[in-house]
Structures are given as structure tokens and as C-alpha cells.
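Internal QA ticket QA-208
Title: Verify multi-chain structure generation after dependency bump
Assignee: T.L.

Test input:
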Amino acid sequence: MTPPLIELKHLTRRFQVKRNLSITAVSDVSLSISAGEIVCLVGESGCGKTTTGKMIAGLLKPSEGEILFNGQDISHLKKDEWEKYRLGVQMIHQDPYASLNPSHTIYDIVSAPLKAHRKTGSDAATRAAAIELLESVDLTPASDFLDKFPHQLSGGQRQRVSVARALTVNPKFIIADEAVSMVDVSIRISLLNTLLKLKEKNGLAVLFITHDLALAKYFAWDGRVGVMYLGKLVEVAPARQLVEAPQHPYTKVLLSAIPEADPERTRHKERIELRSMDVPSLLRLPSGCAFHPRCPYFAGEKCEKVIPQLTFFNDDSAVACHPVAEKRLLQIRN
Amino acid sequence: MTPKNQNNPSTLSIRNLTIEYQAKRGAVQAVRSIDLEIYRSEALALIGESGSGKTTIGLGIVRLLPSTAKIRTGEMIFRRYNKTDYKLEEEFDVLKLNEREMRQFRWKECAMVFQAALNAFNPVLKIKDQFGDTARAHGYLQGEALKKRAYELFDLVRLDPERVWNSYPHELSGGMRQRVLIALGLLLDPPMLILDEPTTALDILTQRNIMDVLKELRDKLRFSLVFISHDLSLAAELADRIATVYAGRIVELGNVYDTFQNPRHPYTIGLMSAVPTLTTHRDNVSSIPGSPPDLIDMPTGCKFHPRCPLAVEKCVREEPALVPTTGPDHLAACWRWMEAKQFLMPNVK
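Actual output:
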């Protein structure tokens, strides 16, 4: 069996806050992503989804655990292999107003990685490659955009330039961190569709980080969605299954809280109330299951004392919750 | 709960309001001669993309526009009703108030809560001092009486009064700050409250909490609520009526149920199809082609025509007015509103 493209094994990341005080932003996350697969990471701010993305992109080092790329631990890579890895994994950032150099033209921005990594020989070839890249992200006609500066482009167009720049080095894996949240609602979908098209064409795997479950369902239609809460992965499942039949109490609460764009439905939607509105601080994480002080399905001592592990089931889902895991294991036994 | 528009008197009548910003390239036509009634104790949602002019309308109502903006034409008749017998007490044009009267109008008659809740506070003042400042500026209660009133409001917005009263803004989470601001906005019991993107940049569960708080507040205090948002589902949840804003004009206005059931303007339909929800099938989602217009150099005719799949020659030539469609309360500014739904939403009954 070929190993997955990216495999996270018990990934943990701590940040030092004060001399004797650290927070665990990501705690014991295990997840594997195959070539050509789409996985969305969903969660509220501070849940560790961006930190996870940054560790995979090589921008942060894990405190514990390992990241395997084609079966190889990336922390042991030699210099030229590490460079190859960094080229293979590219990141698209959230804010297209901050991630493009305002004094460079679009051509400068897209051609810089081409030149730095000697992807093209002559200037003419570089220009041709830049045009092709811009056209692949639906910035047409590309010649109109090459000599413009970022400020002359709309938010959506800038984000397309970011995508084109990420594609210059033929990556295998793209991490898109809230890549459409700053783009106008009317054109978000076309940007996502461009990413989906590129995924099909180039066999890219994508880790899409978002706080929007509806968007995650749309984007990862045939892929998977992982839900994070206070640094832990609490549920992973195929996207539609996760939204239609959530298992983890936190996922259920999230889904029941999201308003629908239909007044009839949204005003009569069944809501699951939390036991407490307060989000615990990462400095003082609750014992046992971190969700237990707020969990509407709280089931006593075990939830308070034992950290639930992610349990995998044969329908491709995995849940970290004592009552859910027990119930499902019981069903399997009978 | 939903107020009947015909019999419900209006709190604010906006007529022919035009607002422009001066820019180097020319005049930015942010609001182009709009007419709008805001009824007593209704919730009206202004929906549109960034740059559509929806925030400018809100800022125009409380006249807090930046110095580059100019109100070119229009009047805004504000009516105050007695809180017990609902008799009309006073009626005046907001645009004719002088600066001193305007300062009293803001907050007392109409409060606005801005986007980005942290920046709205003075970071070195405790919440109690922020309340004290506001109360003093308006000659309102002080000391224990003010504290009592603030505690009542904190209870209404589901905050722990003891904790919040003595906190600095940075000690509160985003959702708490947003609720403190809503409470502060309601301090003088204004008949109208404007919220700009009240749930943007907040987490899902915090958004839900704010929505529930707003619903409760409206039931109890019965103020008119105008909220500005790009989020259709927020409007579906909270609004009685929806106004879709595009290129500085209201292009569709109607009851929330009717608008979602039978949208008439291709832009409203486009927005609805552009936002995936938890239940929509992937194939029913599509972007609106093109991008929002340049407000300095606008297209001719209907400003939506370059992006509209139904555009015909007339749309390029002549801009349609906002007129009644199926009923007197559901208006749209589109030459082809009759066919729009049938063409653009064939899968929906």
C-alpha cells in the first residue's frame, strides 16, 4: 500500500506564553491526507486549525509528533530534500491585501518563484509561463493583468494571483487558510471552483481551513471534513456525512447554531443549547474531554477525567467522545 | 410579531437621499437617490456586497459620514412616538438638525453599533466609565441609578453584570464586547438601533448568541432595528423586511418570507445562489459573474446589467425604478422581474 501523501502523527504544538507557562495550541492531532484529496479543517478561532496548517507548510516546528510526507518524517529531511518538500507544499493566505507586495507588478509576483527555482530558461519562457498560470486561475486575458499592481485588482482577483503564485512550483499539496473569507460573497464560489478545477487537472491535494461549515461541505463535497475544538481533532468524516449526520456533540451544537438562508427553516430549526457559553482558556484547559463543561450530552465522571481518543469506524468517520464511541461499539457488537 | 407595514407608522422616512464621496478620480456615487421607510419596531436588513453603499446609508442616517462625503440631496423625516400610547410626539428632518441637536439625536433617538467591536471602545476606560461618559454627554442618570440601568441591560444581553461593569474592553471576548456595545447603544432607550455587520468576524456559537440576544431585545424593547450585513442567513433569521442594495440603490425590497420565496431581482437571486448553505446541493450553487461596479465610472442603464444573465438592450439603455411587483409591499428595480425567478431558479418551485 502506498503511504498517504501527508500523515500527521500525534502532532502537538505548544507556545510559550510566559517563563513557566505555555499553551497547547494543537494537541495530539492525527490525520492523513491522500494525493488528490480535499480535507477541510473547521473550528472556531483559537482551535488550532491555522497552527496545524502552518506546521504542515513547514512554517512552524511541531513540539511533539511527526509529519510524514510520502512516508518520510519531514523533520529528518536533508537540505535539498527539505527544499523539495517546501516546494511541494504551498500555502494560500487569508488576506490578499497583505500577502502580495504592493510595489511589485503581477508579473513580478508570479515570475519571482519561477526565476528563483529556475523553472524557466529565458525571459520569454518565463513570460509565457506566467501567462499560462494566470489563465489557469481564470484571470483572462492574462496580458491585461501582467503589468498591473495589486492595488488595481479586486480582492477576488488578488486572491487568484495568490493561487497562481502558489502553483508556480508545481506543488502536490495546497494549504488554503481561510482563502475566501475576505472575498465578496458573490464571487467566493467561482474562486473555490477554480481551486477545484486545478485540483482535478493537477491532482492536487488541498487542506482547506475555514470556520464556515456550509462552505466546507461545498468545497469538500467528495472529501472529508475535520472539526477541531481547543487544539484537538474531535471528529473527522466524509463532508456530507458530517453535515447531515454529525456525531460529536460539539459538531451537533455547531450545526444547530448556524442560521439558514431560508426564514421558514431557520426560525424553526432545532437548537441544541450548550451548558455554558464560556469558552475555556487554553491556559486552563478542562480535565478529561475539553468540551465537557459545555457539552449538552455530558455523561458523568468519564468525560471529566479521561481524555477521549479519536476512535475510527468503518464508515470512514472518527469521533473523540466517550458516549458516542461506547454507543457505536455496542451497535457493532450486537 | 411581524409588524403590518400598511398600518404601522414609520419611524424614519428617507426620501431621495444621495450621498457622494470625493475622490481624486471623481465623485463616488455611494448612495443614489434612495427612498426608504423604516417602520416602528420592525427589523430591516440591508443586504449587499462590500462597496454597495449599505454602510453609507447607515452612516448617513446618524450623519457620521467621513469628511470626504457629501449629502447631495434628500430628507430624512424622523418621528418620535410616545412610549406608552404610541401617539406621535415630534417630527423633524434629521438633515436640518444643527451639530448640537445632532449630538442629542444620536444615541437618544437613534444609536449605531459599528463593525469591529474592539475599536469602538476607549481602551483605557473601564466599561463603567464608558457608560458614565455616554450618560453624562446626554444628561442622563448617574451613579447608582446608571449602574442599575446598565445592570438591567447586561441581563438582557446575557452578560454577567458584576464582571463586565468593572472590566476593561481588552478583558472581554469579541462576543462579549459586541453585547456590551449593544447594551450601551440601548442605554438611552432609543426608538431606533442601527447595527453594522453585527456578527461578522465572530465565531459560530457567538453569532448564535448575538442573534438570540437581538431577538429577545426586540421582543422586550420594541425598537426599530436596521442591520447591515452581507449575510443572507442572518437576514432570514432576524429581519421582517429585506432591502437588497446594489451600486448605491435599493434594487429589491420586501417582506422576508416573500423575498426568500419569490425573489424578484436577478441580483437578489444571484446572492441567494452564491452562498452555499448546509442543506443546498453543490449543483445549485453558482457565483455571480463579473465583479461589483466601479462607483465612479458606472455602467449605463441598470447598474447590474454587465453581470445579469437576463440583460436585454433596454437594461443597457435605461435604469429601472423601484416599483411594486406582485404586491404593493414587494418592490424591485428590474425590467424583467416577472421572468427572473423562472429563468434563474428553474429548480425551485
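Spot checks passed. The domain at 6-245 of chain A is CATH 3.40.50.300 (Rossmann fold).
Status: verified.
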